Predict the 3D structure of the following.
Amino acid sequence: MGKKTTVEVLIEGGKATAGPALGGTLGPLKVNIGEVVSQLNEKTKDFKGMKVPAKVVVDTETKQFEITIGTPPASDLIKKEIGLQKGSGEPNKNKASAICIEQLIKVAKMKKDSLIVNNLKSAVKTMVGSCNSLGILVEGKEPKLVLKEIDEGKYDNIIAAEKTEPSPEKRKQMEELSKSLEASMAKLVKKKAEEKAAADAEAASKAAAKAPAASTAKAATPTAPAAPAKKK
């Protein structure tokens, strides 16, 4: 067995290619790049639309390789879980969506091995923290309140059971709340865009009004008479 070389890559789930980013790194190792790409895409197909870290360990003598897949950022996994395209730009003021504690347990289990935590409960708290940054309500509440409830043991039974699927009733409730929050945020974004467009138009109008006035003032300024020529 020869020396092993590890190549770390970041790819979009299910969309790895033999382009410069990957091919340029693996090419010198004389490994079957087409097979590497095929395996990467198969292993990351469930992470479509997300950036996924991966490691390709190549035996430089036999040209055999092994692939290990990491997990996307917690924020991407949370958004995928609830079908959210983008978090809130002002998470402390405007909420983008809502999620159930069971769904966060699901994401926490996916991320647990890559987090510096001792147990699933701590991993769930980390996911709740991510929701706070994204502007996502947890169980219809502010994430900071839910963190306090977790510390108080309110969700201990659910976490211990590693329950990852909410009841149909709870899921429907969160989905309806999410739709309401997303609609409100969309209206706010539209309003801000309209206000900005109006402000830009007003500024342009004022600038245009000043331009002719400046030109007229310049034209009206009398020209000083030329000094008489000195007699020789």
The CA atoms of residues 145 and 218 lie 65 Å apart. Strands lie at 4-12, 51-59, 65-69, 97-99, 136-138.
